[in-house]
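Give me the fold.
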Amino acid sequence: MNVVFYLLVLIPVLVAGFNRVPTYQAVLNAETASIPAAGLAAGTAVLVTTGEGAPDGMRTYDGTIERVDKSTATVRSHAPNGPMTVRVPGAEAMAVVGQGALDGAKAAVELALSLVGTMTLFLGLMKVVDTAGGLKAMARWIRPVMVKLFPDVPSEHPAMSAMIMNLAANVLGLGNAATPFGIKAMQELETLNPTPGTATNAMVLFLAINTAGVAVLPTGVIAIRAALGSSDPAAILLPTLAGTVLHTIAAVIICKSLQRFFPLAVTAPIDPNPRPATPIGLGEFAPMLSVLAAFGAFVWAAHQYGAAVTSWIIPGLILGMLSVGVMMRVKVYEVFIEGAKDGFATAMRIVPFVVAILAGVGMFQASGAMGRLVTLVAPVCRLIGLPPEVLPLALLRPLSGSGAIALTAELTRVYDPDTFIGQVAGTVNGSSETTFYVLALYFGSIGIHRSRHAVLTGVLTDIAGVIFAVTAVRILLGGG
């Protein structure tokens, strides 16, 4: 993350120093185009250069900045439609880059403050569900699948229990509870490790499932969309669920396929008296199959009837989560308040991270480097249907959760939460996890220094996750 942050600052300074005047890549459509607004004002004259209509392949037209709206400036010119380069001769590139940093920092604080209410609401509701026994119930549903996925871990071993609790907490969006369970799971898996210092198949698979971001409720992204004025903040819930399920399945397949190419050399004796496994009956799969069937029916209904169904998501979640607490005789108001305090603290805790990333992103955009990057990678992104504007998020997501949230917020703010780009950005963030952070944290907690196929699994899984996220948005929400 240190390198990413430094490059976000270094590259804009180099680009601005080379160009001397603000220079942007854009696409003109119906005589208008959008460029970053930092340091620019309405009425400013610009020069538009395009390759259309000239024997030498280049021609320059006059233009003007028609209006400035938040982070976007609208350029108007009579140049032909298509790709173009916009130069602002009356401005200093370095001053514009500096203003981009200040605008990004200001937007970060405004965003964090706007998140307080929504984060507080959802974490309060999550606390009610957890207190009502939702985490333990989820663990019981997951157990049959876990026993099949991890045949080399005895079903009654503490490692199995810790892994189940970790994944159950992740599914419920209880990240603070998931991490301690995850570290405990790695410690218990190490007791079964015949090769100390080297990751076992079970460890790598456990991390692969974790990095797939199995979560039912992407509260952070929903909060961002609500704060930025989305007409349906929870619209990304269904594509996020579909994306994370497919992402998780891909993680298991990729990990299981790669482990045969990275054999584990045994350097210590295996326990000759392992704990006997408890047989898993078919009946134990019933709760999970019922949940999956209900989810499938809901996805079908949402796809068929659109907003008539998705508009029920947030009210239904609130009522359902509180109803669980009431049925389990939880003091829902007191417990909600207790969890809500964590929501306020969480929103405030991300301020430094969001400021750092949005200041850097603001400089990157204001310098014109972002436009050049988008133009460069556009052909590759088209192969998988990913909007080029979302590529920086796809690259940052495996490195930093807070940075990815910040970049998701910026993309959502600039392109509007209900556009295809805004929906894809939210789904990519909500259906994945910080791969390299999780690897470093969990492996570091037990001194693993030979990760075998863990990194390759994480990278391939992240690529698959992005493809699934884009596909889910296109199918369930349309657009693109």
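The mean pLDDT is 80.
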